[in-house]
């Protein structure tokens, strides 16, 4: 099998999205009480403090800081399923006794260091091949995954403290890049996970402020396409864009946005695809 081509992404565009979501997180966290920091997020076993500790840990790792030694065997915890989750949990436990305000200062410190390191990267370093959570790809692709991860976690925190994003807050480079990242997986979701048969043409219509139209065609293999060559889709899925990202991330839907999922064409296949949307490890 031929190696898949590396994803070349515009550095200034991706960093604008990453820095924007860090700014948004900073503003959100600045307004939390110590009680808010203890609120449970939609992620099993994690409160708001744990979500922020995870973000701090990942960015620290990318600065070359080794994860702290855990006080227990974290791999035995019920919500820990893989080596990445083990590393995450080491940071979560290490920072669990920190106050909310202390954790916010840690977040600001690591974000400032990462901003400088990323801004100083050369184009060669940005486009160089590296290991990413989705396999070998460019460092730039890895940073788009970081936008997606941080943006999803912002929504997790907002769900925990019951401060959902407004329509205006949902529009911007972070949500756009997060959808770009999800879109890049849709062939895998439709073809490999949902096993849509050859000849399938699946149309996703995302509504609301996180709007997008995505098309996946199955012709030998499933892949995202610009159009269906004049043919109609064989299945359609229409859903609020934020809710789509929640399902793709294995999260419960946001209670303040439209809940309905409209299925058209081959509704059984469309429903099966919705059931298999979660691709996050």
TrEMBL record:
<feature type="domain" description="Mycothiol-dependent maleylpyruvate isomerase metal-binding">
    <location>
        <begin position="20"/>
        <end position="158"/>
    </location>
</feature>
<keyword id="KW-0413">Isomerase</keyword>
<dbReference type="Pfam" id="PF11716">
    <property type="entry name" value="MDMPI_N"/>
</dbReference>
<feature type="domain" description="MDMPI C-terminal">
    <location>
        <begin position="177"/>
        <end position="270"/>
    </location>
</feature>
<dbReference type="GO" id="GO:0016853">
    <property type="term" value="F:isomerase activity"/>
</dbReference>
<protein>
    <submittedName>
        <fullName>Mycothiol-dependent maleylpyruvate isomerase</fullName>
    </submittedName>
</protein>
<dbReference type="InterPro" id="IPR034660">
    <property type="entry name" value="DinB/YfiT-like"/>
</dbReference>
<keyword id="KW-0670">Pyruvate</keyword>
<dbReference type="GO" id="GO:0046872">
    <property type="term" value="F:metal ion binding"/>
</dbReference>
<dbReference type="InterPro" id="IPR024344">
    <property type="entry name" value="MDMPI_metal-binding"/>
</dbReference>
<dbReference type="Pfam" id="PF07398">
    <property type="entry name" value="MDMPI_C"/>
</dbReference>
<dbReference type="InterPro" id="IPR017517">
    <property type="entry name" value="Maleyloyr_isom"/>
</dbReference>
<dbReference type="InterPro" id="IPR010872">
    <property type="entry name" value="MDMPI_C-term_domain"/>
</dbReference>
């Amino acid at each position: 099998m031929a190696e898949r081509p590396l994803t070349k992404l515009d550095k200034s565009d991706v960093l604008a999205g990453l820095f924007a979501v860090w700014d948004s997180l900073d503003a959100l966290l600045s307004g939390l009480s110590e009680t808010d920091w203890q609120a449970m997020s939609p992620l099993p076993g994690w409160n708001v403090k744990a979500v922020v500790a995870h973000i701090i840990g990942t960015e620290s790792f990318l600065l070359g800081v080794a994860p702290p030694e855990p006080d227990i065997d974290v791999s035995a915890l019920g919500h820990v399923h893989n080596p990445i989750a083990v590393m995450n949990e080491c940071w979560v436990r290490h920072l669990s006794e920190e106050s909310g305000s202390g954790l916010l200062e840690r977040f600001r410190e690591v974000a400032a260091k990462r901003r400088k390191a990323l801004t100083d990267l050369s184009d060669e370093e940005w486009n160089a091949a590296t290991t990413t959570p989705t396999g070998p790809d460019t460092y730039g692709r890895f940073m788009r995954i970081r936008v997606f991860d941080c943006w999803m976690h912002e929504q997790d925190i907002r769900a925990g403290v019951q401060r959902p994003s407004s329509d205006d807050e949902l529009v911007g480079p972070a949500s756009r890049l997060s959808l770009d990242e999800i879109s890049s997986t849709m062939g895998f979701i439709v073809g490999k996970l949902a096993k849509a048969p050859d000849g399938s043409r699946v149309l996703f219509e995302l509504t609301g402020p996180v709007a997008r139209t995505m098309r996946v065609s199955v012709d030998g293999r499933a892949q995202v396409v610009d159009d269906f060559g004049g043919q109609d889709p064989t299945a359609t899925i229409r859903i609020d864009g934020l809710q789509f990202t929640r399902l793709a991330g294995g999260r419960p839907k946001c209670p303040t946005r439209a809940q309905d999922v409209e299925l058209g064409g081959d509704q059984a296949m469309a429903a099966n695809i919705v059931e298999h949307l979660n691709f996050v490890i």
